[in-house]
Design goal:
Layout: H1 3-33, H2 38-63, H3 67-92, E1 95-96, H4 99-120, E2 124-125, H5 127-146, H6 166-202, H7 206-231, H8 235-260, E3 265-266, H9 269-291, E4 295-296, H10 298-319, H11 325-357
Antiparallel strand pairs: 1-4, 2-3
Helix pairs in contact: 1-2, 1-6, 1-7, 2-3, 2-6, 2-7, 2-8, 3-7, 3-8, 3-9, 3-10, 4-8, 4-9, 5-8, 6-7, 7-8, 9-11
Length: about 350
């Protein structure tokens, strides 16, 4: 990998982060001007903005005939969003969970994950399947905005500042959105080129590159957003952003990519039988943890992070064909039932606490 390619690869990460930040800031301000609640902003506007890097990278990967990079990017990003992003956010401060997320968005996220596995099981996401996924996100977005009054929030008096010139303010936010999109497109070009070159240089498969380096790079906007929101105690924006981003990644990013790709998106058997199953398991794990007192405690955030480290370690051992891989697999077989038991205990304690209060 030559120096010039390395420089542009790093610059691709930078442009993705800066572009997504401008896009999120402009979109969120526009939404607030229209009176949309923080939760719905996180589920739609901010989720769309932070999923834009995945979309930009996937479109470039699709036309460059790099399907493993496209699929690995989305699946890896969804795993990372829950385990790493929510884990870090919960370590900063325990996160309150809105009941709407438990009743609607988290089941939808689980359903979308299972639907993706079903559609991709034949090894291909064709254009009709892409159109179906994209149609689902369009209907969900319309529904979420229409139901925003159910989660509407009154602006805090001490934070409320009247806008002196509303028209100029709106134009400024639109400008931020346009600039952000431009930076995302250019950043995705450099990032995909650098990732492919990096894979060839080290002899690592493009699937592993998509699941790790590219997924982390394109998820940096989510990570930066939730860290900032957690420090400002905007908890609904944090969790709404992560859950909404995962929905957008599957339905919009893969849906639109499959729709515009010349021959759809090929899905490798490896990602179907392992990585997608991990993504589904992580999505299911959200329900009992979110349901336990409608909070993600710090120790639960630490648990998320620990599992992400284990997942990354597995990918590293597999990519390098390390002799410890067989032993690691044996340990993982024991870890799965232990995790299931632990999640059931969390739910049981939560329900017991509710009954005691009643």
């Amino acid at each position: 990998m030559d120096l010039i390619t390395s420089i542009f690869f790093v610059l691709g990460f930078v442009l993705l982060g800066v572009g997504a930040d401008l896009l999120v800031r402009g979109s969120a301000n526009l939404a607030e001007t229209l009176g949309i609640s923080r939760l719905v902003v996180g589920l739609t506007i901010v989720a769309f903005g932070t999923s834009a890097p995945e979309l930009a990278v996937n479109i470039q990967s699709a036309f460059a005939d790099k399907p493993d990079l496209a699929v690995g990017n989305v699946v890896g990003s969804n795993i990372l969003n829950i385990l790493l992003v929510l884990g870090v956010a919960a370590l900063i401060t325990p996160l309150g969970i809105h009941k709407r997320l438990i009743r609607l968005e988290v089941p939808l996220m689980i359903g979308a994950s299972v639907l993706l596995l079903f559609l991709a099981y034949d090894g291909l996401l064709n254009r009709w399947e892409g159109l179906f996924l994209f149609t689902c996100i369009v209907f969900y977005t319309i529904f979420a905005i229409k139901t925003t009054r159910q989660t509407a929030e009154q602006p805090k008096k001490d934070n409320f500042k009247p806008i002196k010139n509303g028209f100029i303010h709106i134009l400024m936010q639109i400008f931020l959105v346009i600039v952000g999109l431009g930076l995302l497109v250019q950043g995705s070009n450099w990032l995909v080129d650098g990732a492919v070159e990096l894979a060839r240089h080290f002899g690592i498969s493009e699937l592993i590159i998509g699941l790790t380096i590219v997924s982390i790079g394109t998820s940096l906007p989510e990570l930066a957003t939730v860290i900032a929101a957690s420090m400002r105690n905007e908890q609904e924006l944090v969790v709404g952003n992560v859950v909404g981003s995962n929905l957008f990644n599957i339905l919009m990013v893969l849906g639109l990519t499959s729709l515009i790709a010349p021959s759809g998106i090929a899905v490798s058997h490896e990602v179907i039988v392992f990585d997608m199953l991990i993504m589904i398991a992580v999505a299911f794990a959200c329900l009992p943890i979110f349901f336990s007192g409608y909070r993600i405690e710090r120790w639960e955030g630490g648990l998320f992070l620990a599992y992400y480290v284990i997942y990354m370690l597995y990918l590293f051992l597999k990519a390098t064909a390390h002799p410890l891989l067989h032993t690691f697999n044996s340990v993982m077989l024991w870890l799965i039932p232990i995790t299931v038991i632990m999640l059931l205990v969390i739910v049981w304690k939560s329900r017991k606490k509710v009954h005691q209060i009643k």
